[in-house]
Structure formats: structure tokens, C-alpha cells
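Quick start: read one record
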Amino acid sequence: MGQYLEIHKDNPQARLIDQVTSVLRQGGVMVYPTDSCYALGCHIGDKAAMERIIRIRQLTERHNMTLICRDLSVISSFAKVGNADFRLLKSLTPGPYTFLLKATRDVPKRLQHPKRKTIGLRVPDNNIVRDLLKSLEEPIISTSLILPGEELPMNDPYDIQQRLMNEVDVIINGGQGDIAETTVLDLTMGEPHVVREGLGDISRLIDLS
């Protein structure tokens, strides 16, 4: 049975953040809040934990997993980013956007879309996530917490506890989540292409063009 931790959304308790970090470094899978919906996450280097997330959600190999990053400083290690793309990323982060970019050669194939060779990157505006990434010192592999057969993400931490306590290693209660996902922008075709409209305001793209 996993741990259930109530972490303050504005002032995360350092002791509990370190506790979650320890779980991830030992190969654990977590449920955690973001600035949109709740998500499943694990350490970037843990293949077995990532496969557990895939099983929980019953995903296909075509699903783009997302790298959750603390800031833009690490993005060049994982994605090919031109000057225009970087300016766009800088203007929209942190925030509820996921960016699809061409992966660099250093990115393991299991983290890439098998045909398009892309990777999803995200910098959430959430204090719990920010402190967790600072403690972990590495990105997190993640996907929205949408269970098989459901159309909307789970957003109630108590409901999540009832349904997933035996499936994951730690559940973070960071307050009520949203039922909306991020806005997904494909940056591999020159101009930003909206793949999915979510919480991120797409009218900002017009303002930035």
C-alpha cells in the first residue's frame, strides 16, 4: 500500500517533499498535483516505473509521455529548440502548456514518440512540483491521471486515494485539482500548432505572433 501525504500547495513541507523524492529515487510511482489536473509521475531514469504508469493507464506505444522540468535550463539536453521556439517557451512558462519538440539523440527511445521522434516538455506553475523537482534535481516522466475508460482526469485526492492506493507508491494531496488538461502545442512544424486546447490560453499565441 502506498503513502498518502497532504502537502501544502502554497508552502510545501520540505520534510514531505524529501520523502517523495526518496520514493521516486527508489523506483516509485507517484500521483501528484500540477497547475492543471493530477498526474502520474516517476523518475526519468526508471524504465520499470514508467512501464507501471503505462499499465495503470493502459497506454499504447504511440502515447507521448511528458518530461516535467523545473525551468528551461535543462530543455536543450532533451529537445531541439530554435531561437523562436525558445522565445515562445519562455513567454508561456511556467504554465499549463505541453510542448512537443524533436528529441535530441541523447534521449532514450522509450521516452520518444516511436514514429515522430518527439518528446513532450512541460514547466508547471505549481509550488509542490517546483520544490519536488528542486529536491530531485532531475525531470520527472509524467502523464495525466486519466484511468482506462474515463474521459476526464481524476481531480479529487480522496477519490484518488480510494482507487489507486494499491497501485502507486505515494499519493500527494495538494488540494482539489482541475478536470482540464494542458494545452498541447506542436513546435516541430515551424509555426506552433495547437494539438489540444486545454487550460493554456491559446489567444496568447496570437499576441506573440
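The helical segments are 14-25, 47-57, 83-92, 127-136, 157-164, 203-208.
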